[in-house]
Amino acid sequence: MGMSEPPTHLVPEPALWIGGDRVVESSGGRTEHVYAATGRPTTEVVLAGPAEIDQAVALARESLPGWRDSSAEVRRDTLLRLADLLLVHAEPLAALQSLEIGLPVQLARRMPALAADHVRYYAGWCDKIGGEVVPTWPGRSLDYTLDEPYGVVAGIIPWNGSLMSMAQLLGPALAAGNAVVVKPSELAPFVGQRFVELAVEAGVPQGVVVVVPGGPPAGAALAGHPGIDKVHFTGSAATGRQVLAEASRNLTPVALELGGKSPHVIFDDADLRSAARYAMSGVVALSGQGCANGTRLLVHSAVREQVLQTLTSRLRRIRVGDPADETTVMGPVVSRRACERIVGVIDRARLSGARLLTGGGRCGGDLADGFFVEPTVFVDADGDGELVQEEVFGPVLAVSSFDTEEEAVSLANATRYGLGAYLHTNDLRRAHRVSRVVAAGSVWVNGAPGLMPSAPFGGVKQSGSGRIGGVAGLREFLRPKNVWMSV
Predict the structure, then answer these.
(1) What is the pLDDT of residues 449-476, one digit of tens each?
(2) Is the dihedral of CA 41, 292, 331, 199 positive or negative?
(3) 458 lies in a domain?
(4) What are phi and psi of 349, to 5 degrees?
(5) Is 33 helix (H, G, I), strand (E, B) or coil?
(6) Which residues, 6+ apart, have CB-to-CB distance to 337 below 8 Å?
(7) Domain containing residue 120
(8) Domain tally, the chain
(9) Catalytic residues
(10) For position 170, which CATH number holds?
């Protein structure tokens, strides 16, 4: 049974749109977009280079005052209309997201509603942004603060879910009154432009949001641009360091949401079937290409064999295949380069002595031409080795065991990352106790609700410092001004 043809009729003609200007010959050149499920090109992509970044930032600066000075009611109602449009166009948006990265359509179809929830949540904040009166007793004075937008924000977003990334960035940034220049990855260039078209249709003035897909040169030009007032970056720690270096030339503030090596800790008193099912998501969700995926499984030694038996049995039944098939649970990884890199990690883990339980290579048969990697589980890998310490960003799980709560915490914290942590226990006191001491920006106990718009998400240590979601996510795009006057 062959692979379905991707919905290429949804792909726009190769061009950059900077406001109303169509750019077909750019300083960034062109690249091919390749459909990950077949390994075949779909279209050429025009990439932004330094010249187009200059043009985009200039347009955003020109457009900023009208949006910044608009009333809270105007911004609120515009964002509510945008949320509605995301739902009206949910089906083509999901299909376009699936085409970009080979995301299974059953998962892609959830994304528009989640994106709309984020936009709608921040719409509700527009008319609640304000300052506070600062006590000055006993002096005869008035002191108060104003919450002001930064101005023009640079958003550098990842390829592994561009629809959600656009909503998580633009919801709070626009609610706060900023203009935004967004650089999507060259691997996923389509959804961002469609998002902007819907934003303009909703009433966001042309030029307030500019989307310029590009590679590393475009990201460097944007992060280091003197016309940018803040950078919000989501991606790998290695690229985050480069963004910081570029932004430092202008002392531009940077918010970073970086990678992770999240522990999934199963204690011996947990609901083991439920815990194994959630542990499986670290491999299967986004084909392991999620920054917060639980890619280190830590299991109490008393229940280890039972958990592993359930986990591997489930993984062997997972339907890996055609993203357009409604029954497909796991699709390909994003590119040939990513596929070869992940298989390299698997091969090196074998050579280092880790024991392979299931998976271990590329998928064959009808999937051989695409970038499909088998769901893979290793046990007893070197705790200081690549498999345990480095972010694989693929469907590979490293399993270790522990005997005490203190050992579990020590293993959970034994990486330079600190994005998420997953705990499974029926002991409420233990859940609170471990949640306090585990080094992670988010802790999920006995489940995982996804990224709720009302909850802050971000990391500690080398998983970054910025936050998306909740009031903390709004604060990333506002800065306080203090006003004192004698009375």
Answers:
(1) 888 999 999 999 999 999 999 999 999 9
(2) negative
(3) no
(4) -65, -40
(5) strand
(6) none
(7) 8-258+464-483
(8) 2
(9) 257, 291
(10) 3.40.605.10
